[in-house]
Fold these 4 entries.
Entry 1:
Amino acid sequence: MADDEHARAVYSAAYRGDAMTTMNAVDWARQAARSRWNRVGFLASVVLFLTLVSIPIVTPYLWLLAISFTHRDGDSEYQVLWRLLTIAALAYGLLLAVAWRARTEQRARRLRWLVGLAALLVFGLWVAPQLTLHNYRFLWNPDVQATGMQSGTLPSVWTALGNSLLFAGGHTLLVTLLAVPADYALSRLGFRRREGVLKALLLLHAFPVMALTVALFIQLYWMGLLNSLWGVMLVMCALELPFAIFVMKNFFDGVSWDIEMSAITDGASRFQAFRLVVLPQVTGGIIAIATFAFLRGWEEYIFVRTLLIDSGRMTMSLYLFWASQDSMGADSGLIAAVGVIYILPVLALYLLTQKYLTQMSVGGIKG
């Protein structure tokens, strides 16, 4: 009897253990499934939110393209716009499906190429027949009529484009060359009233620039720089430099002082340590302020309009304004085409610098 009771007790304990093990396995599987669905729901919510936010941002650019490549009849531009939106929405949905269902990166890449080729094929068959290059005639025909202007023709777009590149590039070079050594001094050198200098920079950036227009006009006149790209470039550099210094200083503060001291201990001079050790650590910051400075110079209109008088020194912002001056009704197709040309250099700059703007270099300390 005792042996039978002992056997039943052992069997009962084993049964309860198996039941607990099975229940634990079921609980873990249920929790894993719940966690997976929670993650899927969170990612779906993020994608939905970003999609809804992107729609009002992307749509104006598609509309700009639709107007610039269609005739001025009022109907074709809307048809092209809705067809572009349809193709973009379908391609976006397919790309999301590929990202969700593809098991390997190689398969996902192949499917993305197929989606892109399919979108191009649909675009060529459904949208391309309604497109025209008539609105871009100002690129090869300098005698494009603009009835609202006294001269009757637009100035050369290539002159305006070259002036804009010269102006934005020179402004970027000046801001970068002045901001980098200034930030190094503010970050590394312990001089008196350093905090006061930083506060003064913020105060200078807080002034409304429109209040300085008359004073700057008179100052450039007495300096002989009125109606000169270099004069406007100096004005823009003075206004943009406080912001660039304030932003760039954080990058220098993030570089460990021990790295620079290790280079100096190994025999490098202060300038060599700055050039060979510190500068590579702040490359992302230099590219960031250079990009912002270029964009600021490229989009400038107020000071260019006020301080440049000769149409031969016209920039693209003034060219866009010039193209819109039509007393008989603005040519929306021509204005949209000029806007597309105006956007292209900025888009190219972003594509070239985006990977540098989103990464930070991490240095090591020599042991």
Entry 2:
Amino acid sequence: MKTVLFLRKRASSEDNYEKLFKNKGFNTLFIPILTCSYINQKCLRNILEKSPYIMYSGLIFTSRNAIVSFKESLIGIDKQEYEKISNMRVYTVGSACYKELISLGFSNIYGKESGNAENLSKFIISYHKKEEPILFITGERRIGILEKKLPLSGINLKEIVVYKMEERIEFEKEFNKVIYDEELNLEWIVFFSPYGSDIVMKYVKNEDLLKFKIATIGSTTWRHLNDKWNIKTSVVSEYPEAGSLLEGILDYEKEKNEY
């Protein structure tokens, strides 16, 4: 049985990557590279207590961690205020973020088919016509596409950083144990972010990765691996979701007569 290594945390409940890949006969492993800590919670809470639906014409989320931070800051907010906040227009990428926002009560959600910040920026520029600023709730590390492109198109963008990612102490040991274990029949390694890729490359040589097939979630991580580390990628998932990645890997293996 072929093994796929996902360089991310396994979802605490049912993990869609695990479910879909196991249904197609793959063994799955999860090794998270990063650990998340939330910051500026008081500042975010202060924004939420001051009628953000009046101050801002919309919200932007591009990661689940940002949504979790937002959710924590909503605790204790007056019910009527909560309803007004959840009626705000929201822009996001991917089905995972979309589902998280739905669970918080948001319904006015746009951009879930965009798949990445580049496409989302194009959608917002073409769709958003209001003068009030949009609030971008984000993490400490991001590639800056929205921050560059939206203001150039006349959209007033404000941002608040609500979380940061740092390397897990256990990562090096766990990663090396897996990639050098021949009994696992490890065939695929899936990268999820440029920052995570940089950490991986501290502990492995390029030639050691040649025996594996590499997949990335999104073109940003693909470009980073290629341009900075000269790592060739076999599959680039069009959307940041399990189904898109699985489709790409199955198509690749069928083309190579490996599935």
Entry 3:
Amino acid sequence: MNTFPSDAQSINESQLRNLARQMGKLDAMAFDVDGTIADGESYVSDRTIAALRALSERGIEIIIVTGRLWDSAAEIMRRAGHDGIAIGSNGAIIGHSSTGEIFHSQPLTADESRTIIEIGKKYDLITTIFSEDSIYVEQLDMSSDFLKGAHQNLPIKVQDFSTIEPHHIFKMMFGHMDASYLDEISPEILKHCPSAQRSIDNFFDIASLSEGKGKAMRIVAEKTGISLDRVAGFGDGGNDVEWLEIIGWPVAMGNARAEVKDISRACIGHHADDAVAQFLEIYVDEFDREFADEQS
């Protein structure tokens, strides 16, 4: 499906401009966060925020589609000055960034939560719980630094999982220092937790079986009236495949997992190099050249 090189090293400005021209005038652009618009320290740079703001000023809808807590997604929109829709916890929570109105919310079932906790213990995995507005671990570990970077204003709570009400859990995460170990036990994880998705090499994200980023994008399209064929989206993890493959312009990061590159029409640079910001700056420049009369 790729129409542009899948090797991030071969992407140059000319190819990015060609990609921008082919996309044309879009209804919306959608963005995963970690591994996509966030840098190596899990921070969304001022350059990226400025590029998002430029899209908004040209009437292009911005959608954040992330496994992070919903408020973390909404904060990115607020920094960009965009009044739009943020998707958090892999689609389990959807709401308006400016008003804080949540119009879709689906926690894990009690049975799903208990099963995930049991599987995490059985395979000695680092398990993390995401409620609507909090993150819980039973002990601080390798995932804690990653989570602190992604949710800078939110403390990581250390708490016995048995004391957390199951119906307050919207997403869970498995982690392990050894990615090859996760490769080895992946069939067992998927057998017991069929909604598990390999977000990055060292983590699985798990939302309710009835939820997902793909379903969330369809909900947003129905609510806003945008055409998914006229949406460009950027992602890197296994949990991005289901929404990227239903839009018109799926774009993989240079650091993306193979399954993301396989379904994408283009592949740009590495997230740590602000590759999305670089492309958006070029897209805005081409947009202004092509549609300047409509904007005046």
Entry 4:
Amino acid sequence: MVIADALRARIESHELAPGDRLPSERELVERFGVARMTIRHALDMVQSEGLIERRRGRNGGTFIRATPPVLELNSGVGFEEYFAAEDSGVTSATRSLGQVPAPHSVANAFKVEPGSEVTERQVVFSSEGQPLMFATCYTLPGRAREELSPEPEWREDILTATRASDRECEALGLGTNAVVQRVTRSMFVGDDLTEFSLIAIRPDAAKLRAVTTG
């Protein structure tokens, strides 16, 4: 869309900086000579890319967001270590840690019976006070990956776009049935699965990047 492309170009060229306020919908209608619905659709597109945010209230409006952090899928370390090393301003907080019955997907990954006891750790990652990622990590009791090896030898990431669970929506501040970027991560030492994680990422709050070589 021409209007979305024009706004995106001004943001990416730094003509519009983080914190700048966009003209009102009425002003954009006059500037581009289109219907208000067309302007709203263009703003929706740019917002879905994490480039702008809409604020309500007396000082509300549409503002340019800071560039969303980039999540490197092949950085070689976990997200917590990656963000700490990058000095990205992204913080992590463990929300809960304990023993739970293994859901079917977790049981299948570890090749144990559904309902078997596993250790579950929930971690919320935030940037500038906004949650951007919620990770639910599973290990077998007494088999945390640190006990087998300081670092996993290899891992597999599966990327999908899927509806968030109620728990993920609550943790990320999303509405019911919101769609998230999903990373299903399996970490291995040899052939042994040491950690299985379900990671939900707000599509408007972070970008995923993977680098391959020929």
